[in-house]
Description:
Layout: E1 2-9, H1 16-24, E2 31-38, H2 45-55, E3 67-74, H3 80-90, E4 95-98, E5 104-105, H4 109-119, E6 125-133, E7 139-141, E8 145-146, H5 150-154, E9 170-173, H6 174-180, H7 191-200, E10 205-216, H8 226-238, H9 245-257, H10 263-271, E11 276-282, E12 288-294, E13 297-298
Parallel strand pairs: 1-2, 1-4, 2-3, 6-10, 10-11
Antiparallel strand pairs: 4-9, 5-10, 6-7, 6-9, 8-13, 11-12
Amino acid sequence: MKISIVTPSDTKGRYISETIKSVLSQEGSFYLEYIVIDNCSHDGTIDILREYEELLGTDAFPVRCLGVSFRWLSEADSGLYHAINKGFSMATGDVYAWINADDIYLPGALALVAHSFLQFPGIAWLKGITSYMDASSLPTSSGCCYLYDQAWLQDGTYGREAYFVQQDSVFWRAEMWQSCGAIPGEIRVAGDYWLWIQFSRLAPLYSINRIVSCFRKTVGQLSEDVHSYREECRRIACGTMDFDLFKRKLFFYIERRLSVCTGSNALYRLFWARRTHQYIDAADSENMELRTTKGYFVEGV
Length: 301
């Protein structure tokens, strides 16, 4: 199996070395194709890319999987999703994902993903657990294993009225991207939200009960502008299908009026009590099985 990872980069010289290392140092029985698309950065990013290009495969930075292809471009683009589309147009793998130039994969992440897709051929896309770190790479929280209802994904509930589908821990088969096409150019901040809606029309999203990635929280990053993200989500959702009024009011009450740490979790559990979901329980990258549970997430790991 070949896994294609794309990293869009725009003046991320402070963090991109950690991102590149987290991808290229992945170990396991898979082939890795890594593509970095940089937007003419002048902050040392190009020197870092060249350094890894020279070091990869040497004693200083050995290949730890079946084989690695590392390519990068530095040319002007029109934004994050233009770079991502460009990267995937070059991809040749069986499984796709993108990791932003300030986030990282944890050791063993891609081995876990490869084995999951091989062991469960009926799964078209899956999501691991996202953990969190600060600007200094210090961990802040570990996250949990969220479960996702296919109908609610299709109508855009997640990211608008409920919890997010964190992009850094999502992986999908290449056919999913090819069926949906590139992320539309007019989308500026919520391309992942658009993509999840398209994917959910083709197949359910499975969750893996293992931490696979770490999202870095920094001042001024694109994801800080939650208002713009939600506004674009609303425009995307309105263009797909009507959103259930009862669901909108329910989640508005839960997320805006109650403490997330107390009452909201209890109400989520109550509302989801009769919903059944399957998720992958992974002791490690080789030992995993599909399990069934009721509720909206599996606590911890």
